[in-house]
Amino acid sequence: MTTDLKGQNIVITGSGGGLGEGYAKAAAALGANIVINDINAGNAAKVVDEIRAAGGNAVAEVGNIVDPVFAEALIQRCITEFGSITDLVNNAGVFATEPIWSASLDKLRAALDVNVIGTFNCARSAVGPMMAQKSGNIINITSGAHLGLPEHGNYGASKGAVSSFTYGWAVDLAGSGVRVNCLSPMAFTPMAAHLPHLPPVEVNIPPLLFLLSKRSANLNGQIIRIVDKKLSIMAHPANRAPVLERDQWTLDTVGDAFDETLGALVVPTGIATYEISKVS
Ligand SMILES: NC(=O)c1ccc[n+]([C@@H]2O[C@H](COP(=O)([O-])OP(=O)(O)OC[C@H]3O[C@@H](n4cnc5c(N)ncnc54)[C@H](O)[C@@H]3O)[C@@H](O)[C@H]2O)c1
User: Fold this and answer.
1) pTM passes above 0.85
2) Ligand 1, residues 109, 152, 189, 204: which to mutate, most atoms within 8 A of Cβ?
3) Which of 144, 154, 164, 240 is deepest in the core (most CB within 10 A)?
4) From the CA of 200, how far away is ligand 1's center (Å)?
């Protein structure tokens, strides 16, 4: 069986280059209609031209997703051009790599603006039409940096917010026909131009296509992670069992609880792989 994306009308933010360009070209090749968004007009036009030259269907909507008025216009462009919006890929993002002791507030604000506010703006504009048609699919883009990566605290915090958006919106929208999932990719792109050892864009495309496709129709509130050849699903931050209960806790009974029970449940901070055997 070959799964296609025919009949899907998809907005992909930041798709004038890097991973977004790869997602857009691959989705168009599977029959989807794509709105290419980027702040870089030349790059957006080039991706549209290349998709059309390959027999696909795409239009460009150039602008900054940090502006809520533009984000609304971006979603409306998909509806006027293709008749509806079925999927939104919140891909546009910026990097901010600095340790806390020398981090700049301006870079933190820029990362929060694009990665958090931009993602929010596009999703908020898309959910109205999606809820009205009782179907829709939002894919956010997070990063393993949100689990704790040296010198990535600012960027990681912005992507932590994106992960939390995924959980929160999935819960809000449960039963509405609109699902919200997330991809944690890794690739050598213009954003990561200083990291030539990273995997190529291509390895990130199949999990993104899976999230766009009917094959993931029952998935909601989940983060898929792809690191070159390694595919996994991330655990949600969770309240681990057992939950201890006392009428009143004191410094020493909390200390005893850690010595006797909770201390053994501490998981490493930072990107790690471990098994959670039971969800309760
Ligand atoms: N490259 C990686 O290893 C990696 C790892 C984890 C997560 N990510 C995330 O994947 C996404 C894509 O990253 P990439 O590596 O392709 O980056 P990139 O910089 O190569 O591409 C991002 C694109 O978004 C556009 N853009 C930036 N700000 C915008 C805005 N305000 N409005 C519209 N467009 C805007 C840029 O012009 C650019 O074309 C980002 O959200 C990034 O945080 C990347």
Assistant:
1) yes
2) 189
3) 154
4) 14
